[in-house]
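Q: I'm building a small set of examples for a reading group on sequence design. Run inverse folding on the following structure and report the sequence directly after it, with nothing in between.
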């Protein structure tokens, strides 16, 4: 029975919130004591439940952190400027990276613990907008594909319609009707 449940979970997303690839400027502060780690970095991906980034310092899992993330303006959204998102979080994972080229040898995942409902909604709007942008970019990069306006499903692009030359009035009146009824000039067939 346990193997069956494991097989069902395999390949299925465990996170409850939608996640988006996003490089956002952010700061992670660990602990309130003097000399505590202050990491300035950028996110790799984000959701309404947490953030993943690369870090210059190791932070132990279950450590409490304060996060500050700069959310950009979303077109049509309530805020017309970028917004500072400040909240508390907990380190879920901190692992050493296989290759470190930027002075950030750790992969850091944090879960938000105290996020205001308005901030959560704003973050969800950003994630949805960012994922739509990524989808549009992927579809426009695929030759011969278009998006159906009705349901967003990909379908083959239609070929442009060819235009026909309009028939002249004389050509219309001289053609016999296929049904044998009235001619196009209004006179009855004889």
């Amino acid at each position: 029975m346990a193997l069956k449940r494991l097989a069902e979970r395999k390949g299925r997303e465990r996170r409850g919130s939608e996640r988006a690839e996003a490089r956002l400027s952010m700061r992670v502060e660990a602990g309130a004591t003097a000399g505590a780690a202050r990491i300035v970095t950028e996110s790799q991906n984000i959701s309404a439940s947490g953030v993943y980034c690369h870090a210059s310092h190791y932070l132990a899992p279950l450590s409490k952190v304060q996060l500050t993330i700069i959310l950009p303006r979303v077109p049509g959204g309530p805020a017309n400027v970028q917004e500072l998102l400040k909240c508390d979080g907990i380190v879920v994972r901190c692992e050493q990276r296989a290759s470190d080229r930027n002075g950030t040898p750790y992969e850091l995942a944090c879960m938000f613990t105290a996020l205001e409902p308005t901030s959560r909604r704003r973050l969800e709007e950003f994630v949805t907008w960012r994922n739509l942008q990524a989808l549009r970019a992927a579809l426009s990069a695929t030759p011969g594909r278009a998006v159906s306006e009705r349901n967003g499903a990909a379908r083959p692009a239609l070929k442009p319609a060819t235009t026909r030359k309009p028939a002249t009035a004389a050509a219309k009146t001289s053609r016999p009707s296929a049904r044998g009824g009235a001619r196009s000039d209004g006179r009855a067939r004889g």
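The longest strand covers residues 83-96.
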